[in-house]
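The instructor's notes for this session suggest beginning with a concrete chain rather than abstract definitions. Hand out the sequence below and ask the class to guess, before any prediction is shown, which regions might be ordered.
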Amino acid sequence: MSQLFRSVFVSFVLCFVALPVTAQEPLKLEATRIPDDSPGPVLDGRLTDEIWQRATPYAGFKQQDPIEGAPASENTEVRILIGRGNLYIGIIAFDSNPSRIIAAQARRDAELMNVDSIIVALDTFNDSQNAFVFGTNALGIEYDGQVASEGQSGSTQAASGAGGSQRGSIGAFNANWDGDWTVRAQVTERGWETEMAIPLKTLRYREGTDRTWGFNVMRNIRHKNEQVYLAPIPRGFDIYRVSMAAKLEGLDLPPRRDIKLTPYVLGSVNKDFTRTTDSLDRNGDIGGDLKWGIRPNLTLDVTVNTDFAQVEADEEQVNLTRFDLFFPEKRTFFLENASTFQFGQPQAIDLFFSRRIGLSSAGQPIDILGGARLSGKIGQWNTGLLNIQTNDADDLAGRPIAPANNFSVLRAQREIGRSNVGAIFVNRQATGSRAGSDNWNRTFGLDGNWQASTNQRFSAFVAGTDTPGVTGTDYASRAAYNFTNNLWLVNGGFSQVGDRFNPEVGFLPRRGYRRPEWRIFFQPQPKSIPWIRRIAPHTNGNVYYGLDGTMQSANMHLHPLEIQPAQGGRFGWYMDYAADNPTRPFTVYNRDGRTVSIVPGEYDWWQQVYEYLHNPSAVVTGTLRFRKGNYYDGDFTGFEMLGETRIGSRLTAEGGWTRQDIDLPGGSFVTNLIPIKATWSFTTLANLQAFIQYNGQTAQVSSNIRLALLDRSSTGFFIVYNDRRDTTSVTPYDTLGRSFVIKYTRLIDF
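After discussion, reveal the predicted structure:
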């Protein structure tokens, strides 16, 4: 262990005495134009066409991990073609031992960092902030997304080693954008190869001659756990750092004429077993979306009779707090360009949270009659305009629960170099006969992000709300600082939320507080211990104070021992501290006729956690986590197990079990959360997925089974079956509800 601590100390000293790095001239590339009388390459996953041989190969990839700046251990060649309305990218990922290539995860948008993969970033406005991302693996899946502000948001930045963007999460990288493009890949005798054909009308850009784009490629050589870049990116950053990308020059870009129509037809049968009359509901419906590229840099999306029948089910959570849980948005219409409308601190002070549209507070769907979204870039302005109209809503018994509402959002952000300033306005206006008088809510705010240097970023916002009949402090604000280099990640921030701040179309789990927060990661790589890739001791925490100065709650995470082995995963030990000062009772357990509550008072407690995460690229992998300590004025024992396996390259299965055993003066109880998911991918565009969950806190078992036969850009044929069952002994119903949906949607190009 002495070697380990000596390595940490030396790295700690070097990080403060290292000389600043001089900015280098970016690598310059050119795309080979396809002659008008020549066909484009045949997309088969092999770069053997004669047209590819004419293109200049670009190589010289540099490592980010494990040895920053060293030449890649395996050669990679990139070729770029343009013509016939497409940008073609061909990549040969040479490998000295192709049999070791990890080719798994055949589903669209599957995680790429656990397999051999390629990710391409295209900064089509050459603004060093925003980009489109296209990725694939050796099976040729489609993975795509959008980058804003170089992947940085106003909240804390993820540390290296953190997972990729989850589908449904909204941040400065939006993995939920689905473009219309084509990719083919295969393992060959020289490694693996891929060909991408990206229609220019799928992108946004400034038309004209001799244009320049930012361009970078990251290759993940997963069987070596090695990440390499065409344009080098230092540790602490990733492919989203487009200010460090190469420059793709000499592009002649035509006007973008893009009209896409996506109609759907749907049939469904729903049965609610808790209703004594009219429990069976048969429904047929039609609707669709229209996408119109008004200009190369501006897109209009229109939706009519919007339907989300094929949306993945929410993941169950156990709530042991006195605040609402966050469930991410998963509906496609709201996910596309979602980062354009992001404002605030995600999952803490969100001024716009699209799940407030078309869903009741209990999660019941509310019909969306239609809406439109205009988004894009006008000069140096990123702009977004959204308007959605919902219908009146009734509960399952036919009782009114919400009037019709019109939702409007206006977002504008002015880029100044790699910094920006912006504003947002959000409005909810009740409409129709149930609206009543003065049934509206408005939210507005100003924000800014200052890239002070390569490593430092300051962020701030101030916001207010206006609600009829509400008086008091109705504003919120936050300032934050972020420092990142190859050894340190340091975040700090301070938020204040008024006691009457009321963003009804946002997400705000609590109000009336001041909150300092911090996060510090130290991530050296000890070269003298080959089996260790990185050690990452870190700490983070926050404290909520009432506006009167009284401490409301606090959380602190102390993680002195985290070791990341060379092949991936991590293990270690940490402690969590929590304090809470509830002023009224709240329930943490309520089932089978038993209720356990926390009474008002001042509490604080510690918990110790031991964890092990196995190499995520292994055929069989998993997580073990054991937690022991206190919880309020009682005892807490918990463990978590999560296992995942892949059978061949097409079938993946995962299952988990989280158990929490809690003993309080007011009663003892146990919660169990068991998710089981299996995915069988027939092809990269066709899969069958089953997701079964048991939540012991609610005593319900839910099942979501979905067959997806995709065509283009996540459109196609869907069959969805949902089932909810109750396992308590005090309710008369075993089955609560079932639904069966068949939906077909098609992308039509004009």
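Then share the key points. The mean pLDDT is 89. The two ends are 65 Å apart (CA to CA).
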